[in-house]
């Protein structure tokens, strides 16, 4: 385990551009669609991170033909459906929930296939039951569990999709429904998925991306039923991966705190990703974000103070960014109740409990609920604790729970020159956990702080 990483405060207002990596969610969806589509598909702007490498390695182990060029951020997947997926394989998905769910649904297509799947200890605790139950109900798979039923590790005995109807419980993760929407379409018969309770943002990404690979538009009925008509995916030839808007949240927050101007290339006015709504959360405090000429431009005029008042914000539709906001809440003045985040207790870690614990260590008053977190900022107490640590020759240190979003969110808090001397006061444990989605995060953050216009 590497030593905690001291965070160097930002010396002044920003005037820079930040090139973000591709979206993990879009990259992994595109890899599955490319594997299912007829022909070869080249993905441009693809993310190369721990989670996407897990997906790439799994597809290669299953016999799919893949050519990757990390320097160019491209991946080409050639459909070899006659050979892939192989009839048998052992796959390890780490703690990559997207890969775990998408691969499980993909493997069910191969009638007669037998596959053993496992993951890290944390993945063994993450929700899979809704997907596995739906596959059994559809007659697409059977499972032999080698630990707790409904969880990794298990052996999947594939029977193939042959239509039918299934009730899908995707309340724990929208990825459960997305996995079936991607892989469940057959060339013979229609298939119905009934899923009245699901967070819609990532499902919308899935449905839009299906269209790019030749699927007709698909909407849920009033009762939450999705009808997948017979379909053969077709390669679009190339598919551009959108930059990670969740990653943009950290640099938007930094711009709010520091002031100045930030450009984010290759983002348009209507991104696929629902996390774009986070910009409106920061707009309340005075951040302006404009989308023009294929990039976002974020600014905050330092002549205007950050707006400080009590807020109640429902983060359900863009919950990956709630940690960004919670981490900087000590500097925003007014109290905030962040709701709609109960499902985040079952992600890489219990994110509500983890955030409550870390903010409490920093002297903030926090009320934890099943589905919400209320933060009452105490900026003077934060400074007092940072100063006591400094006088003791130490830094305040944040635990990250092997969760990349804790590391990146608190790095933005640490970028504030809290003690006014330009010296680090906060350190991040296990900064390498950012490799899950943004391996170069700390290098990019350092570049954003250098005050050199791009």
Commentary on this structure:
The chain is α/β, with parallel strands linked by helices and 454 residues long. The chain has 2 domains: 5-21 and 243-448, UDP-n-acetylglucosamine1-carboxyvinyl-transferase, Chain (Alpha-beta prism); 24-225, UDP-n-acetylglucosamine1-carboxyvinyl-transferase, Chain, CATH 3.65.10. Helices cover 30% and strands 21% of the residues. It has helices spanning 24-36, 50-61, 97-107, 129-137, 175-183, 200-212, 245-258, 278-283, 322-328, 351-361, 379-391, 404-414, 441-448, and strands spanning 5-6, 14-17, 40-44, 65-69, 74-78, 88-92, 114-118, 141-145, 154-158, 164-167, 191-194, 225-228, 238-240, 260-265, 288-292, 295-300, 311-314, 336-339, 365-368, 372-376, 396-398, 426-428. The strands form 6 sheets. Strands 2-14-16-15 form a 4-stranded mixed sheet. Strands 4-5-3-13 form a 4-stranded mixed sheet, covered by helices on one side. Strand 10, helix 5 and strand 11 form a beta-alpha-beta unit. Helix 1 (24-36) runs parallel beside helix 3, helix 1 crosses helix 6 (200-212) and helix 7 (245-258) packs parallel to helix 12 (404-414). The radius of gyration is 22 Å and the shape is globular. The two termini are 35 Å apart.
